[in-house]
Amino acid sequence: MAELRKIPNLDGLVEIFPRIFHDDRGYFLESFREDWLTNLGIEERWVQDNQSFSQKGTVRGLHFQHEPHAQAKLVRVVSGKVLDVVVDLRKDSPTFGKYFSTVLDSERFNLFYVPKGFAHGFAVLEDAVFVYKCSNYYNRESEGGILWNDPALGIDWGVSDPIISEKDKLWPSIQEFKEQTGGL
Ligand SMILES: Cc1cn([C@H]2C[C@H](O)[C@@H](COP(=O)(O)OP(=O)(O)O[C@H]3O[C@@H](C)C(=O)[C@@H](O)[C@H]3O)O2)c(=O)[nH]c1=O
């Protein structure tokens, strides 16, 4: 059985630690079970799987999609190690603007469930193949983000001077985001 852990103080986030079976051949694990989440009352319809590779020292994020294309995500690595980061952008959330980070690695193969309403990103601590399920299709026009290194977020990414896309250098601060949208 996998171990499920709700993240205290940030409602809606769940970390999942699958049971890993090692033997002479290698290892086996269940990398997805719908009932992990439905047992917690979380219903998602996963419609898209994504995979990316990133070199050590990369940061991707912090991303979300606006409604009606908002996405919940179920993220993990298949190789390497990342620091996965989410920021609560839910309009009426008492924890709006708060972040949570957790290490995802290919020893524990832990997964992280990120509901709609959060910005998501990760810093690559060891070259990583990152895979994730999404509950809505990619929609370029609905892409949004906030600036990964906005001092107001206070995120310790564990990398300095990262490899980062031009797009990700230009997202607004959380203050600008809040003024422009009020939240997700
Ligand atoms: C995310 C995505 C990108 N693309 C294309 C657009 C672009 O040409 C190329 C690379 O896109 P990006 O630079 O946005 O990729 P990336 O920075 O890896 O974007 C991802 O970052 C992480 C942190 C997330 O949370 C994801 O939801 C997603 O936003 O792939 C798709 O075709 N489908 C998709 O679902």
From TrEMBL:
Pathway this chain belongs to: Carbohydrate biosynthesis; dTDP-L-rhamnose biosynthesis
Keywords per UniProt: Isomerase
Catalyses which reaction(s): dTDP-4-dehydro-6-deoxy-alpha-D-glucose = dTDP-4-dehydro-beta-L-rhamnose
Keyword rRNA-binding: no
Record EC number: 5.1.3.13
Entries under InterPro entries matching the protein: RmlC-like, RmlC-like_jellyroll, RmlC_Cupin_sf
Pfam families cross-referenced by the UniProt entry: dTDP_sugar_isom
Highest rank taxon of the organism: Bacteria
Keyword Transcription: no
Enzyme class: isomerase
Sequence similarity: Belongs to the dTDP-4-dehydrorhamnose 3,5-epimerase family.
Stated role: Catalyzes the epimerization of the C3' and C5'positions of dTDP-6-deoxy-D-xylo-4-hexulose, forming dTDP-6-deoxy-L-lyxo-4-hexulose.
Quaternary data: Homodimer.
Protein's UniProt name: dTDP-4-dehydrorhamnose 3,5-epimerase
